[in-house]
Amino acid sequence: MATAAAAVVARAKRLIQHHFFAADAVRPDRAVAFAPDSRIEERLFARYREAGVIHEESPGYYWLDLPAYDRLIQDRFARVRMALLLLVAVFVGLAVLGANGVFH
Predict the structure, then answer these.
(1) 37 and 71: one domain?
(2) Is residue 54 located within the same domain as residue 75?
(3) What is the pLDDT of residues 44-58, one digit of tens each?
(4) Judging by DSSP bridges, how do beta strands 32-33 and 61-64 pair with one another?
């Protein structure tokens, strides 16, 4: 179930991003109309707006801020990297404890 939800979210992200990239709407003077097609797109769009990634130039017309988008992607990768490093540290710690007979 979680995998299906992740796939739906990933698809919505791609659709939103593609809408702005395909129209080259990456500057205020290139703002395009956008209306989310689903609740997921609506939530992601709101999240992008709150993060300063998507800006409203005029009512119903938006553009994607590339530097803010890049920061969002970099922050996401940094969080994933930190989680993976933490997970590796836990496994290494468990392996060391197991090798020293703590679990016997």
Answers:
(1) no
(2) no
(3) 999 999 999 999 999
(4) antiparallel
Q: What are 43-48's contacts with CB under 8 Å, separation 24+?
A: 44/9, 44/12, 44/13, 44/16, 45/16, 48/16, 48/72
10-37 tens-digit pLDDT: 999 999 999 999 999 999 999 999 999 9
Name the one residue in this structure whose structure tokens are 């205020």: 28
Domain identity same for 73 and 59: no
Structural domain boundaries enclosing 85 = 66-104
Residues 50 and 87 grouped into a single domain: no
Q: How does residue 104 score in pLDDT terms, banded at 50, 70 and 90?
A: low
